[in-house]
Model the fold of this input.
Amino acid sequence: MAEREAEKERFKGAADPGTFDGTRTKFAEWRTRAKAWIRVQDNWSKSKVAIAVWTRLQGGRAGQFGMARLQQCMDKEDEDPLSDPWPTTKALFEELTLRFQVISERDYARHKIENFKQGTMRVDDFMVEFEALVAKSGIKDQEQTIVDLLERNTNREIIKELFKQ
Done:
């Protein structure tokens, strides 16, 4: 019971931000929660802040990045115990922002169109969304790229039917 009260006091209303899996569209929200959570911690050292943030980067690119940065700082500290390889909180979040923030709507559309699958979506609904992504991504003049994306992302059964006719 005393531990739970101590934990509540320690967090002072800011919840742990949870993990970040590298999904760019979720980064801004996670970063805001992480900054708030770090801000209410009393007297955390640069190393403790960096460790707390980097260990919450999990899965895929984010996890690899977090573990690589953590290992770099720990290795530098092991080599020279008097060194201070840990970034400031500001520098830490600037680095994360450069790496994971959605850069622009065009970049977001390019990423989304690469992974956009028709699945069970109706053909006309799929085409409307696909065409919108093509326009937003700035690839409307790249016909071969568009054809390749359509072939890769359209339901295989529909492609078979088209080539039968």
Summary: The chain has a mean pLDDT of 87. Residues 16-100 form one domain.
